[in-house]
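Exercise 7b. Backbone tokens:
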């Protein structure tokens, strides 16, 4: 597990099925994290060397995401910008931040502008991926804005994210994605990722 994560984190070595079983048993016995203790407990988990602690914390946060108040975003940003790697950031972006910005859409412009300007690659990746599960509700104008601001980046994780969000949206709106890739300059990686699902599923005549 450590090797798979490029030696960035230590692991107990608990595989996903067993980890989820432990989580379910713990939740059944003790319940969810008390709201007033959420930040303290989650940050404690984030400070532990073994990655399973962070996965455990994210499982709990996912269960309460639809009920959190506006202040929870500060904790999400902390998690994105500490011990940052794709395995945590991608879950937080699509399952936590994505839910948050659906519930508080008036905060989207300010927050994403701050994240884009931050020069923090993981916050920028979050801007691209928070709409990953939005399907027909995805805001294409907003996505175009983010891609335009980040498409010149040489960062692998940014280029990959551009392709990933377009690929996921291609399952909902193939015409938009094909047209977008043809019209706007994207890296080769972003283009390949964007069209991968359509090519594999023979869903468009131009492919």
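Sequence design result:
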């Amino acid at each position: 597990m450590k090797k798979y994560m490029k030696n960035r984190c230590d692991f107990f070595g608990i595989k996903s099925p067993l980890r989820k079983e432990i989580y379910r048993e713990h939740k059944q016995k003790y319940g969810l994290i008390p709201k007033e203790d959420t930040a303290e407990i989650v940050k404690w988990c984030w400070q532990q060397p073994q990655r399973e602690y962070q996965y455990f914390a994210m499982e709990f946060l996912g269960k309460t995401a639809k009920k959190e108040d506006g202040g929870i975003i500060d904790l999400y940003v902390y998690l994105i910008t500490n011990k940052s790697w794709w395995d945590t950031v991608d879950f937080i972006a699509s399952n936590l931040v994505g839910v948050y910005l659906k519930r508080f859409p008036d905060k989207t412009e300010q927050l994403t502008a701050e994240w884009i300007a931050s020069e923090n690659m993981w916050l920028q990746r979050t801007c691209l991926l928070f709409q990953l599960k939005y399907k027909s509700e995805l805001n294409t104008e907003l996505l175009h804005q983010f891609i335009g601001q980040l498409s010149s980046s040489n960062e692998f994780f940014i280029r990959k994210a551009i392709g990933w969000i377009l690929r996921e949206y291609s399952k909902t709106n193939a015409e938009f994605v094909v047209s977008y890739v043809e019209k706007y300059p994207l890296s080769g990686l972003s283009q390949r990722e964007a069209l991968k699902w359509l090519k594999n599923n023979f869903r468009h005549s131009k492919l």
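Instructor comment: The chain has a mean pLDDT of 94. The chain has eleven helices and no strands.
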